[in-house]
Structures are given as C-alpha cells and as structure tokens.
Amino acid sequence: METKGITVYCASSSSVGDSYFEAARRLGELIARRGLPLITGAGNMGLMGAVCDAAAAAGGVTVGVIPRFMVERGWHHTGLSRLIVTDGMHSRKETMASMARGVIALPGGIGTFEELLEIITWRQLGLYDGNIVVFNVDGYYDNLLAMLDTAVERGFMKPDHRRLWSVAIDADSAVEMAVAHPDPLNLTPKF
To answer: What pTM was computed for the model?
Structure first.
C-alpha cells in the first residue's frame, strides 16, 4: 500500500442527483482497488460519505481530515480508517494536499470550488506537484472550465496554465489521470 493517496474534493449535500452518487461510489471503489488511500474532508453525508463508504466496502483505506469545529457538530464520518482533526479549514486543506499524490474534484458546491481553485493555484506556484483532475460528471463543471478558458483568452492566465489540471468524464479516467506521472510544470509566474 502506498503512503500517499488520492484526495477527493466533493459535495457534502445529499440533495443531488443519482448520477453524482453513482460516480462517487465508482470512484471510491476504484481508488480502493488500486490500493491507494482515499483522503477526503471526512464528511458523513452526500458524495463525501458515498465515496468513503464505497472505498471502505472495497477494502480500501479511508482517511478523513476535518476541522475540530465540524467534529464538535457531529459532521464527521465515524467509519473511516483514520480521522485527522485539524485546528481549522486552512490546516485541513494543507494536510489533505500533503497526503495526496493526486487530487480529484467530484461535483460540489462553494467549498469544493474553493478547494479546487486553491490546489490549482498551489500547483501553479509550485506548492503542490501532483495531478489535479476535474471529474466533470454530467457536464457539471462545463461553466467553470469555460470561465477558466475566458481567463486565458482575455490574458488573465497563460495558455500553458491549462496544463495545471485534466478533465475526466468517468471514474476510470479520473483515477488514471490522478495516478499518472505528473507533468513537470514550470509555470511559476514572474512578478
């Protein structure tokens, strides 16, 4: 078993369509079958709960990283292999990134958007060197990807910045892209 795993960012909401839950369960199962630890934000509901439950059911190691205030509110998954409690959101994200050889963003809300865009920024700045995969289930991320293209087209990002992430439309591709040898990027901006 490898030490570094796959960090998955995703929704904690349970009021999303079945196709998103199916994608999350398939993703958790595939990560477990690869013998890789699954790292999540340790939530017990929504896609976060589904990806963890599927990985555990397939015999995988599940690691949850969650701020203390969320544990105090009872939002944490109690069936994980390991629970890491942090002092706050920033240390949570830093811990999740440090444990990851690759990151996959399933659909999610504002928290998932924030995590995804921050890890893309960290890769651009050389603070994270693993792969980043946008798992575009049912075209969920089409508008965000279009916004990133607009940023490139209007000069706010360089064309090479599109290499900071990959886009997958199924779980198998998402896992393969996450574990592939990372493209050595030299994109650090010159200020």
So the answer is: 0.94
